[in-house]
Design goal:
about 20% strand, about 260 residues, two-stranded parallel ribbon, 6-stranded mixed sheet, alpha/beta, about 30% helix, Protocatechuate 4,5-dioxygenase, Chain B, 9 helices
């Protein structure tokens, strides 16, 4: 039951209903990993001053967006939670010296949209875990704790975006400009090489300030890197496999990486 670690791009909320290559890929994602006993998901859309862990027995479907088609707001994905797994996570975070608290919160669109496409039956327990307002190393440490669960049949999924310049999105356009692809290529090369020195200094990368004016959509990648790596510095990791790459909304790279 040893599970891989996944990073997925969740794109715009309309990924749940609009045909595109990334949606097609996510609909087949479950076939590419062993069926997990539970899923832990870290989304860019949940961030707090300390790590929060969802302890609810049933996950509410949170429609944390506005101005989209009515069809989206009718979608529900009531996956069960796992209070027992949540308590295990809280204990391991405490043992690692990472401040954490239980929270009753459901799944935001960064979590339920990709998960509902991959596991539409909503029959696998899901525990959401928040980002914090810390930096790269804080999220590597968080990931290292979550990664210890993979030996127990728990699939850890980090959901974010390799590129997230929302001011430049164009719905329906899948042809990215060069200034976006420059950062995307840099990031892909650094992830493939597991170049943590370069990744820690991601703000030095081409067009980084324009691509990520805030860091919350990139931080899930560091949770995934920490989960896939050895639990202590220098955080050595196994090879990574890029399962998918495409574009939506002109500037959103839709990437899935898997560490075995």
């Amino acid at each position: 039951m040893h599970q891989p670690i996944l990073f997925v791009s969740h794109g715009a909320p309309t990924l749940a209903i609009d045909p595109c290559p990334a949606r097609t890929f996510l609909c087949g994602l479950a076939a590419l990993v062993p069926r997990p006993l539970a899923i832990v998901v870290v989304s860019a859309h949940w961030r707090a001053s300390e790590v929060l862990v969802g302890v609810q027995p049933i996950n509410e479907t949170i429609h944390d967006f506005g101005g989209f088609p009515d069809e989206l707001y009718r979608l529900q994905w009531p996956a069960p939670g796992s209070p027992e797994l949540a308590q295990t996570i809280l204990k391991r975070l405490s043992a690692a010296g990472i401040p954490a608290k239980p929270a009753a919160r459901g799944l935001d669109h960064g979590a339920w949209v990709p998960l509902s496409l991959a596991w539409p039956a909503a029959d696998i327990p899901v525990v959401p875990v928040s980002l914090t307002f810390g930096g790269v190393d804080d999220h590597l440490r968080l990931g290292a704790v979550l990664g210890s669960l993979r030996e127990e049949g728990v699939l850890v999924i980090a959901s974010g975006a390799p590129t997230h310049p929302l001011a430049a999105v164009v719905p329906g356009n899948d042809q990215p400009p060069r200034w976006v692809t420059a950062f995307d290529h840099w990031l892909g090369d650094a992830v493939q090489a597991h170049d943590l020195a370069a990744l820690r200094a991601w703000r030095q990368a081409p067009e980084a300030a324009r691509i990520h004016p805030t860091d919350e959509h990139l931080l899930p990648l560091f949770v995934a890197l920490g989960a896939a790596s050895t639990q202590h510095p220098p955080y050595e990791a196994p090879p990574v496999h890029q399962l998918h790459h495409s574009w939506t909304w002109h500037v959103l790279a839709m990437t899935c990486w898997k560490w075995d």
